[in-house]
Amino acid sequence: MASRNRRLASEVGMVMAALSAPLVYGAEEQIEEILVWGSESDRNFANSSPTSILTQEDFASINVATTEDVVKFEPSVVIRRRFIGDSNGVMGMRGSNMFQTSRSMVFADGVPLHYFLQSRWNGAPRWTMVSASEIAQVEVLYGPFSAEYGGNSMGGVMEIETAIPQQSEFHFDSSYYSQSFDGYGFDETVNGYKTFASYGNKVGDTSFYFSFNRLDNESQPQTFRYGGGSSSATPLAVTGSIVDNDERSRSRNWFMDTGVVDTLTNNYKFKLGHDFGNWSTLLNLAYEDRNSVNDSANTYLRDTSGNPVYRGDVIDGGRQFSVPASRFATSDLERRSLSAGLRLRGQLTESIELEANINRFTVMRDESRNSSSHPDDPAHTLNGQVSDFGDTGWDTAEVKLYFDDLGVQGLGLVTGVRRESYQLNLDIYNSSNYAIGSKDSFTSRSGGETEIFAAFAQLNWQLNDQWDAAFGARYEDFKSTNGYFDNDDVATAEYDLTHVPSRSSSETSPKFSIGYQPISEWSFRYSIAKAYRFPIVEELFSQFEAYNTVSISNPILAPEDGLHHNLMAERTIRNGYIRVNYFTESIKNAIESQATILDGGTSLRTFIPVDELETSGIEFIANAQDMFIPNLDIRFNAVYTDSEVVKNDPNPSLEGNIYPRMPEWRGNLLATYHLNSDWDMGLNLQYASDSFGRIDNTDDEDGVYGAQDGYTRVGLKSTYRLNGGMSLGIGIDNLTDELAYVAHPWPGRTFYANFSYDL
């Protein structure tokens, strides 16, 4: 019976159709029921984790352009999406900062979107593989408290579910964006648009769905440069540089920005579902075609004749500095990816249910062509570099069994096995013609493979009406193979490589949770878990030299070792709840990408473990409909976090420092007022205090490129639903046009206009 109830719960995801479906509030509320594979009621084996649920109704006050927008207001979540269409929309959760991308997991319809091949800005989830317009529901699970997820869930897990068509349905929406940005020597308006169309239907027991999403957008400049040291006896006299501090309070001459980034992303999606008896299957195919061009760098410098200056040793106002020509390099990125996933769920017996997921993600093309100077530089040539990812991608497979009846009342079990394999290969070439992407000789080569096999089990026991407990464990076996990086000897004809011996290790992570509900309005839960996060391919093997960047591999990295606690108190209120979470985590051997800037501006990076980090925090969450006054829906959260380095034997001077990119305070607010059944008004707010970007905590300057600024970003949103399935929406983000940096600049004031149609 419990299995049937869970199946019924999974078949009714009670979510509201955003932007388009008519809504009636009051005694005769009409709610559209959308079929999804899972709902909060279906997660009764993961209740050891603090959880947050988002439905389409919660999106009403968000200016949604991409998938990141849907989830960026959730508690203890930070997403650094620098502009609409950014491929580097990295995510951090709780004690994991936004650059620790392999500590959080994102799934869409059971298909991994997290990118466990690279880290930092390159490790952002592949958000564009699911379009924001197709999302029905998001479930966020915090921390590694469920045995169903591996050590990569140290921060948490996001489970995105899209709707499964139950009848003929057509949807179209189109949005226009316009952003004004003024920073350093750049003051312009950039624009973009999105177009989405989908069709789905169910014929007999078979559902199918097609969608196309096109996003074309211009961004504000992402990088600003200052001059390096110069001792030339004959510097060129120039004007135009901007004198301002850098993030470490050192006075600099800023001489350029990298200009507008033009991005174009096309996403094609096909889903095919079929029900047979007590079994359901879902095939999910997603194809991404992405192009990003950055070829309009701006120099602020002019010589005495008024000509732009793109290189050399210069002097401006008595201050001498160097201008490397490579700072003005253009880039043209082409990326094409294919994701294929298959889900299967069904009942083996009255009390045993099986679920299986397999996925293959293939990088079909990922190539970046870079010049060595600005195209308008008089000394410009076609010489450049080409970076190419080949044989790159991952495979995952998982089988889970749910047992509802183990002979003891209230006792259930989930158990299963999972295999993940990742492969990354990066070649960087000298090019005599970067425009056509000629690959003449290697400058760098590196790559390798990792594999994790896991087996897990978790008992969930409802002891009585007041008490429940969960006991779990996860065993993980890790291997790294076929690692290599370049070690060329110019005296040999071939390009020489160093091959890294294979390594393996295994760990077991116990989990425990206990819940208490003394009365119906109150509930309490304590959870504790161990978690081991194994290094990814880039951390082990990445070694290359590209313009302005050098990376050194570290193939002997051990897994991160985490101990996590969470204590929750929750009180239900009318149409909602108030919740407080106190959490702590201690991470040993925390893998940190540490970099230093060499003379001339080149960044030297490697991955070095920090002996131990400790993070503690407290979250306050209040979510309710009709809060304070009728028709006002509120989602509010605030978190205080204290994260510091407690042990670092190689460099004890870092002990006691605040961990980078971890603001003490963060908060979010979504407020939606329903004026009537057809018209919504929404307010959103994001707040963060400032933080450090460097582990040595020497970057204490605010309001400059490279800083980790605090910010208060206010947005407005209004949607009006017309007859015939049409909706109109307008909105604005960063209402006050606040200029703030998270190393790169956040977007300026951005206007939105949206039209949608449903048939």
What can you tell me about this protein's structure?
The structure is a single chain. This protein has about 750 residues and is an all-beta fold. It has a single domain, classed as Maltoporin, Chain A (Beta Barrel). Helices cover about 5% and strands about 55% of the residues. The protein has three helices and 43 strands. It has a 26-stranded mixed sheet that branches. A hairpin with a 2-residue loop joins strand 33 and strand 34 (about 575-595). The chain is globular, with a radius of gyration of 26 Å.
Q: Main beta sheet, described?
A: 26 strands, mixed
Find the structural class using helix and strand composition: mainly beta
**What name does CATH use for the topology?**
Maltoporin, Chain A
N-to-C CA distance: 37 Å
The H-level CATH homologous superfamily, spelled out, is TonB-dependent receptor, beta-barrel domain
Number of DSSP-assigned strands: 43
Radius of gyration: 26 Å
Helix proportion range: under 10%
The CATH class, by name, is Mainly Beta
Tally of separate helices: 3
Q: What's the rounded overall pLDDT mean?
A: 90
Weakly predicted, low-confidence segments: 1-33, 39-46
Apparent shape: globular
CATH architecture: Beta Barrel
What proportion strand? over 45%
Total domain units: 1
List keywords for this structure.
mainly beta, 3 helices, globular, 26-stranded mixed beta sheet, 759 residues, five-stranded mixed beta sheet, disordered N terminus, Maltoporin, Chain A
